[in-house]
Amino acid sequence: MTLTSLIFALSIVLAPQPQAYEELPEADGPVEVVTPPPALPAPGQAVRFCRLQPCPANFPCYQQPGQPAALPMPPQVVSMPAPPRIFKNPRTDRPLGLNFEYAGTALFGLTATYFITPTIQLEAGLGPITRFFGATYHFDGHNPRKLWTPYIGLSVVDFHNLDEDGGDGGLGAVYIPFGVQYSGRGGMTFAVEGAWAHINTGDGETLDIPWFGIKVGYRF
């Protein structure tokens, strides 16, 4: 046996096994794909298979595994971005919220909220001695990626059940909150705020005090 014959025999034994395709996992980053030529893979050449389904526009994808006759051979590899992830705005996807409020306008009561737009939320609530109605404006609320939104608001508060006759004695307040709200994609909502309360004491005098509130609830 000549040296040339020995080298040829070793090259056959040590040659890599043919591989029909290789799956690429789904990823948010760039995914390598190949342009499909009308030919089968040669022995020892690997073909990469893109699992992204359905295929977005201008994004070459291949047939499912198990059909090696239809798989292309990669003479040219290009890097293309994966299709963009679609984010739903949690304020429009789940506009209705029910919350328990600690302090705030309800004074340890229940509140209901509703986003009429991604930035404007209506509020109403009831507590042991107060009931109120108002609205808040959420900055950058139209951005679907934003789960935390700072806000400013205005509410009108009515006091009830303060005297023996069930009246409020003329008490009322204007409540101006400044806070930040979390609107989770799964439905959880949380807000914390500082506020300025302008209270009509009922005897012709007014009282201005700083206040705060914490809300925890769920959005539907």
Describe the structure.
The protein has an 8-stranded antiparallel barrel with strand order 5-6-7-8-9-10-11-12. It has a two-stranded parallel sheet with strand order 1-3. It has a two-stranded antiparallel sheet with strand order 2-4. It folds into 2 domains: 16-80, no CATH class; 90-219, Porin (Beta Barrel), CATH 2.40.160. Mean pLDDT is 74; it is low at 17-39, 56-65 and 67-80. It has helices spanning 3-14, 90-93; strands spanning 22-24, 31-34, 48-50, 77-80, 96-103, 109-115, 120-126, 130-138, 148-159, 172-183, 188-200, 206-219. It is built from 2 helices and 12 strands. With 220 residues, the chain is mainly beta. It is elongated.
Which structural traits does this protein have?
2 domains; 2 helices; Porin; 220 residues; mainly beta
Summarize this structure briefly.
By secondary structure, the chain is mostly beta strands. It has two helices and twelve strands, in the order αββββαββββββββ.
Distance between the termini: 81 Å
Q: Give the number of helices.
A: 2
Q: How can the largest sheet be summarized?
A: 8 strands, antiparallel, barrel
Structural class: mainly beta
Percentage beta strand: 35-45%
